[in-house]
């Protein structure tokens, strides 16, 4: 058997129809309860009450014509039919009908009457075409039965019972279903229209169009879902822009050294040089550009391994101050060339637990960036101290100021603050990305600030060995 698949709107519509159906069914049973239990019960109680009250008019003696006349007068003014007879067989002359196809009085009924008890008779009478509720009461004196009173009432049909209230029921029912329709329709619009918009929006996103946005009218769960889709779209849009920028940067970083290598190789091959010194200069340039490519590829591989958790740290206790001094020795030539003043504030006894190779790479890259982007004849401040059981490493230089909108992007692949990507600094934009990943792998914190007066400060916090 083929499974019937319904979409969400069809399911809700089905739920509404089922709800209305149950409401109508409930209304039917409620009216039936009112008719059968409340209405019929009240009629039975009234018949018994009126019968006992009528029979109580006679307390002694015989059933005189005067008493019978009073009973007949009561029959005229009452809503009930009352029959008074001397003998039980005479009752059939006044009520010659069967109730539910049975005789009005059977053998068991006769015994009850002889014992002085009344009997309740209820059932359908064909001649009246309706149900009759009645009771037969025996009239006794001190010694014997002297007569019988049969009081009965034909019941009105249910539509007659509720004839006065039917207009009210119709009016209130119509108003109820009208309000129900308006509420459901509003819910349908507020629920399904945003969902339809989200569906269309997701299709646009799946095709690569991340520029569209949803504008939810409500702040309910559907509105929150729309905002989540907007956030997802913005994130995908930013990732797409960064991917394009990354590809452009990779092409740029590779094209420049390859152009140099290809050009000078052709010059050497075709012997387009005027002296051996010029040829040697070409070879040196080729070597530098080859080293540049090698470093670029090596940094990309390192960064990928770090970001994908493919690199296993070989941790051991590290005297971080000594490692910093060893790293600074590597930059003496560069510091001298730019006439920079290195101002140190180092706490010698700090010990951290980490990978010495990677920690030195962090120190090297941070100091390298500070020297590259420092203005000549300026000062670089390097601090290494303990703050709240944490190693605090700060490097401050004065040179290129990082704009506020670029601060959060420091550490992205190939991102550089010098938009022209000049070759004077020689950077690829991967150094701080690697620093950021290594610091995170050591459960540390990386941050950077930049001010026109104080300069640019790179801050690294790492846990000390306890």
Structure, explained:
The chain is α+β, with helices and mostly antiparallel strands and 466 residues long. The chain folds into three domains: 8-156, Beta-Lactamase (2-Layer Sandwich), CATH 3.30.450; 187-311, Orthogonal Bundle (Helix Hairpins), CATH 1.10.287.130; 316-463, Heat Shock Protein 90 (2-Layer Sandwich). The chain contains 13 helices and eleven strands. The strands form three sheets. A five-stranded mixed beta sheet has the order 6-8-9-11-10. The protein has a four-stranded antiparallel beta sheet with strand order 1-4-3-2, with helices on both faces. Strands 5-7 form a two-stranded antiparallel ribbon. Strand 3 (130-140) and strand 4 (145-154) form a beta hairpin. Helix 7 packs antiparallel against helix 8 (276-307), helix 9 crosses helix 11 (356-372) and helix 11 (356-372) packs antiparallel against helix 13. It is rod-shaped and about 160 Å long. The model is unreliable at 420-425 (pLDDT under 50).
């Amino acid at each position: 058997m083929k499974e019937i698949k319904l979409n969400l709107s069809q399911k809700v519509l089905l739920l509404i129809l089922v709800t209305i159906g149950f409401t109508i069914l409930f209304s039917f049973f409620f009216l039936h309860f009112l008719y059968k239990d409340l209405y019929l019960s009240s009629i039975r109680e009234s018949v018994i009450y009126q019968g006992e009250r009528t029979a109580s008019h006679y307390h002694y003696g015989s059933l005189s014509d005067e008493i019978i006349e009073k009973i007949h007068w009561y029959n005229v003014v009452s809503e009930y039919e009352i029959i008074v007879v001397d003998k039980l067989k005479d009752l059939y002359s006044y009520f010659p009908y069967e109730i539910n196809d049975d005789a009005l009085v059977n053998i068991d009924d006769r015994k009850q009457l002889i014992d002085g008890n009344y009997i309740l008779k209820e059932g359908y009478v064909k001649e009246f075409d309706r149900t009759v509720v009645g009771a037969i009461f025996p009239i006794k004196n001190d010694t014997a039965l002297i007569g019988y009173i049969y009081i009965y009432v034909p019941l009105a049909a249910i539509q007659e019972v509720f004839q006065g209230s039917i207009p009210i029921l119709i009016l209130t029912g119509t108003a109820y279903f009208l309000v129900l329709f308006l509420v459901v329709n509003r819910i349908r619009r507020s629920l399904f229209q945003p969902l339809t918009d989200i569906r269309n929006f997701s299709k646009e996103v799946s095709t690569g169009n991340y520029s569209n946005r949803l504008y939810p009218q409500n702040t309910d769960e559907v509105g929150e879902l729309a905002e989540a889709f907007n956030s997802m779209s913005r994130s995908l849009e930013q990732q797409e822009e960064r991917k394009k920028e990354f590809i452009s940067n990779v092409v740029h970083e590779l094209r420049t050294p390859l152009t140099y290598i290809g050009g000078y190789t052709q010059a050497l091959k075709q012997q387009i040089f005027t002296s051996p010194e010029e040829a040697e200069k070409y070879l040196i340039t080729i070597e530098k550009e080859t080293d540049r490519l090698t470093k670029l590829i090596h940094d990309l591989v390192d960064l990928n391994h770090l970001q994908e958790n493919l690199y296993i740290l070989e941790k051991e206790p590290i005297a971080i101050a000594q490692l910093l001094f060893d790293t600074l020795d590597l930059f003496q030539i560069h510091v001298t060339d730019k006439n920079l003043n290195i101002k140190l504030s180092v706490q010698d006894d700090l010990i951290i637990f980490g990978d010495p190779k990677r920690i030195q790479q962090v120190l090297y890259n941070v100091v390298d960036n500070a020297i590259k982007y420092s203005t000549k004849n300026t000062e670089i401040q390097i601090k290494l101290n303990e703050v709240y059981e944490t190693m605090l490493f700060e490097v401050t230089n004065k040179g290129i100021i990082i704009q506020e909108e670029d601060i959060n992007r420091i550490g992205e692949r190939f991102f550089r603050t010098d938009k022209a990507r000049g070759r004077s600094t020689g950077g690829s934009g991967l150094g701080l990305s690697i620093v950021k990943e290594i610091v995170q792998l050591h459960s540390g914190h990386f941050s950077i600030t930049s001010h026109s007066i104080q300069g640019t400060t790179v801050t690294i916090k790492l846990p000390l060995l306890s």
